[in-house]
Specification:
- 30% of the residues lie in helices and 26% in strands.
- By secondary structure, it is an alpha/beta fold.
- The chain has two domains: 4-314, ANL, N-terminal domain (Rossmann fold, 3-Layer(aba) Sandwich); 444-547, GMP Synthetase, Chain A, domain 3 (2-Layer Sandwich).
- Strands 1, 2, 10, 11, 12, 13, 14, 15, 16, 17, 18, 19, 20 and 21 form a 14-stranded mixed sheet that branches. It has a five-stranded parallel sheet with strand order 4-3-5-6-7, with helices on both faces. A three-stranded mixed sheet has the order 24-25-26, sandwiched between helices.
- The chain starts with 9 loop residues before the first helix and ends with a helix.
- 48% of the residues are buried.
- Mean pLDDT is 90; it is low at 147-151.
Length: 548
């Protein structure tokens, strides 16, 4: 069997690791351990069932689940069956589900029972015709399931009986049919493995098609960064970073390609994270700045032994210096930083673990990536040590957004015969090759590690019958990166509309992390001569106000 780095299909790379580590623990979920052999068997069985239900090569499958053993089995099964996975956050509403299902042209969905109501509501507007429903305790031992139901610990959703409905547990029981139903693995290399949706400057999320080859190259590169600290096979990662996000995938899920272990957290619960670190002797923690701040400020932190942690990685947003300093003082270890994007399949730069990095550095460029730092207007290289927009190229890079030609033409540019992704982030690099984040050039908001489109929030607000215009910006906040503030102009004949009512309106139409925390009413908003909203002026006003 080939080693993972020589495979060009994600499932085959996992199967290779499973054959060498069959009895080792691959996944820990809600206190139960699942070996590599068990996960492989479940994934193959589920893949066979999906094929029997009509899943054909290249079909898209929405994975609408929280971090769980079911998520991993579903993701691997879709790959084995020749499908394309479309992972989305479990906090999406029916509106979000319908948009992504339509944009990706998905035929199947795998969801938690708690989300089934949203899927059912959205189905008439989509091409989804088969829905696999999973209950979070489905794959746990029977006594844990009974305990959960008896004490009402596990959330349950209502699931009715419809012709399109399939049950995950039932589908996993079809072991005998696996070999005869499963076709040979055919999608590999630059064939699309999954589509991850990301926010940005546009009203709607954009689908980023990631190939088998790109994922394997990036994931193996990023999971091996900690090898100077411990062998990759001995890595035990606390998987609180969401698996639908590129951070959770390349820095967490990728441990399954090298024989290590991932302990999945369905949601962020600090005491559960601390307990898992202590009990499992976890070696790695992956998180965003908000998580590290929450840990440092938790009043029961000293009740747990977290000394086994040797690699703590920060991604998703720039880590404030004061958090890194406090972490070093508390644990006598650094938080290693990195920089990446969904479009680059995660890491562009990461801090090495065999030497000290400058406190503000976001790392050194990884070997699979090539960068240019340019003037955002002319795309000409900037002078040495000067800040400019970061462009990224790699051999197996994403080359376009899914079904978004206009967004593709603005985000990907060809220079001297080579394609580059425009990150829209301003960075600088020192003489030793350390990268530093300077600023963002686009109208995105970074909140708790999520990249949120200002336009999407504004569009929802402007759908309210009382709103004439809206502007959404990020307000710097040390705890969450940026808080969302919206400025609203009401129609002339409207009275009595409150910020509370508009926030409630947003709650019904946006995922929780996209909802504005503040609403400010204005008589007018600054616009250019051609009527374009000037968010930068609104941000400038807020910045000056904060300095007073």
């Amino acid at each position: 069997m080939k080693s993972p780095e020589y495979h060009d299909n994600i499932f085959e790379a996992f199967a290779s690791a499973a054959s060498e580590n069959r009895n080792r623990t691959a996944v820990v979920y809600l206190g139960s351990s699942f070996t590599y052999g068990t996960v492989l068997s479940m994934a193959e069985s589920f893949a066979a069932s999906l094929v029997k239900e009509g899943l054909k090569e290249g079909m898209r499958v929405v994975i609408y689940l929280p971090n769980s053993i079911q998520w991993i089995v579903s993701w691997l099964a879709v790959m084995r069956a020749g499908g394309i996975a479309v992972p989305i956050t479990p906090i999406y509403t029916s509106h979000d589900f319908a948009y992504i299902a339509n944009d990706s042209e998905a035929s199947f969905a795998i969801c938690a029972d708690t989300n089934y109501g949203y899927v059912l509501e959205a189905m008439p507007q989509t091409h989804v015709n088969k829905v696999v429903v999973a209950r979070l305790p489905d794959l746990l031992p029977w006594w844990k399931r009974m305990f959960g139901w008896a004490f009402d610990i596990v959330p349950r959703g209502k699931v009715s009986k419809e012709p399109h409905l399939l049950r995950l547990r039932t589908m996993l029981k079809r072991h005998a049919e696996s070999e005869e139903l499963l076709p040979p693995v055919s999608r590999r290399g630059l064939d699309v493995a999954e589509i991850l949706y990301t926010g940005g400057t546009t009203k709607f999320p954009k689908g980023v098609p990631i190939s088998h080859g790109l994922y394997l190259e990036s994931a193996l590169e990023q999971i091996s960064i900690a090898e100077p600290l411990f062998p990759a096979r001995e890595n035990v990662i606390i998987g609180s970073a969401p698996l639908f996000h590129i951070l959770g995938q390349t820095c967490g899920l990728s441990v399954l390609l090298v024989g290590g272990t991932i302990a999945l957290m369905p949601k962020v619960n600090l005491d559960a994270i601390f307990d898992a670190i202590e009990r499992l002797k976890a070696t790695s923690l992956i998180g965003v700045p908000t998580l590290y701040r929450m840990i440092l400020e938790h009043n029961r932190l000293d009740m747990y032994d977290l000394s086994s942690l040797r690699y703590c990685f920060n991604g998703g947003d720039v880590l404030p210096v004061e958090i890194n300093q406090r972490w070093r003082q508390k644990f006598n270890k650094p938080i290693y930083q990195g920089y990446g994007a969904t479009e680059t399949c995660g890491g562009v730069a990461m801090c090495p673990t065999d030497r000290e990095s400058p406190m503000k550095s976001i790392g050194k460029v990884l070997s699979s990536k090539t960068i240019r730092i340019v003037d955002p207007e002319t795309l000409e290289p900037v002078a040495e040590n000067q800040p400019g927009e970061l462009l990224v190229h790699s051999e197996k890079m994403v080359r376009q957004y899914w079904n978004k030609p206009e967004e593709t033409s603005s985000a990907f540019v060809e220079i001297n015969g080579r394609l580059w992704y425009r990150t829209a982030d301003i960075v600088s690099v020192d003489n030793e090759g350390n990268l530093y984040f300077v600023d963002r050039t686009v109208d995105t908001i970074k909140h708790k590690g999520y990249r949120i489109s200002s336009s999407e929030i504004e569009a929802v607000l402007q759908e309210h019958p009382a709103v004439m215009a809206a502007c959404a910006i990020g307000i710097p906040d040390p705890k969450v990166g940026e808080r969302i503030k919206a400025f609203v102009v009401l129609k002339e004949d409207v009275k009595g509309i409150t910020g509370y009512e508009l926030i409630k309106w947003c709650k019904e139409r946006l995922a929780a992390y996209k909802i504005p925390q503040y609403i400010e009413f204005r008589d007018m908003l600054p616009k250019s001569k051609v009527g374009k909203l000037l968010r930068r002026e609104v941000r400038g006003e807020e910045k000056r106000r904060a300095q007073v």
